[in-house]
Amino acid sequence: xxxxLAAPDALTxxxxxxxxxxxxxxxxxxxxxxxxxxxxxxxxxxxxxTQNAFCAAPxxxxxxxxxxxxxxxxxINSGNANAGTGAAGLAAATACxxxxxxxxxxxxxxxxPFSTGVIGEPLPVDRISAVLPAALASLRADGWxxxxxxIMTTDTVAKGHSVTVASPQGPITVTGIAKGSGMIHPNxxxxxxxxxxxxxxxxxALQACLARAVGGSFNRIxxxxxxxxxxxxxxxxTGQGPVTVDDLASPAAAALQxxxxxxxxxxxxxxxxxxxxxTKFMTVHIEGGRDAAECAxxxxxxxxxxxxxxxxxxxxxxxxxxLAAVGYAGLDALAIERxxxxxxxxxxxxxxxxxxxxxxxxxxxxxxxxxxxxxxELGRGGAQxxxxxxxxxxxxxxxxxxxxx
Length: 405
Known about the structure:
Layout: E1 17-22, E2 34-39, E3 44-49, H1 57-68, E4 73-80, H2 86-104, E5 111-118, H3 125-137, H4 144-150, E6 159-165, E7 172-179, E8 192-197, E9 200-201, H5 203-215, E10 232-237, E11 244-245, H6 251-273, E12 281-289, H7 292-304, H8 306-313, H9 319-328, E13 340-343, E14 346-350, E15 353-354, H10 360-367, E16 371-377, E17 383-390, H11 394-401
Parallel strand pairs: 4-5, 8-10, 9-11, 12-16
Antiparallel strand pairs: 1-2, 2-4, 3-10, 6-7, 7-8, 12-17, 13-14, 13-16, 14-15
Helix pairs in contact: 1-2, 2-3, 5-6, 7-9
């Protein structure tokens, strides 16, 4: 059960993007599992991908195609990751792109493929190819919600967010969808995410905008510490609206960045709220570091700790586990007498030891909530960062033990 998360009531169409979701029976019959995105001519696309060395075949091919041609279509399948499949997997992804290119009257390099699901299984190219005509025939501007549902794997809630912001040149619309629930940890984004805007954005500015947004959102979440083979986050600028952004120094660029940041942050937090088996949504905020990197180092030590995460599942204020994680995070010359730790507003550790006014009852009151903030003051400088995570429950083990059955 996702933590305080529901599927969006509606998602705002973005001029220049049409979507379709169809059922191909990639892994399970009777559910939509193939998605097409059609982009208006002249659209620009930026992307970031997984840094996992065993990246999936569609990741390899999408990188190549993005460098070679302007994308016209994105094709996404759920249920099969097409990862760990070697040369055959690359050939399968290539075949899907070629068939869509033939049907859509474009070059194969203008098609970007994406996959998510079970690793190591052959991609059913024939089943995917068979439904592409129906997908092309059903493309529609308001297909975002259907697409968000179709890319789900172990997700329990479809994830999407829209925002329209004002700028000196006019309004900017940004809409995004994402999937992700397990195998979530940075080294890009640990998920699939597709965000689009109607602004016209120069390619370098678009890539910089995406990198900045991902740095504060998808690269600040963790569910289980495992980085996927298939991560991809795409930002599309169709140029069909009134706003043009040539660089990130203009007021219009600031409005665009704020909108993209918001959409990515909401989607990233939704992934954690829907973490496999999650019952608690946890914000880990580290401040007083020498730089943001060491703050993130401490934040992830806490957020990835199975002992911390199981304590939160049990609503057990076992603050010693948090303190231990701070200690083994690997900070050079950490002065523990300067470290303060808070659960919500309750100080549990002051100047490196148990706070004199801390009581188990006060800690228990915080831990019983379904949204909890852990705040650590390092006393080393002025840097800070925030990471979002969830607890580990019995259901996390069950979901992953049964994933292929």
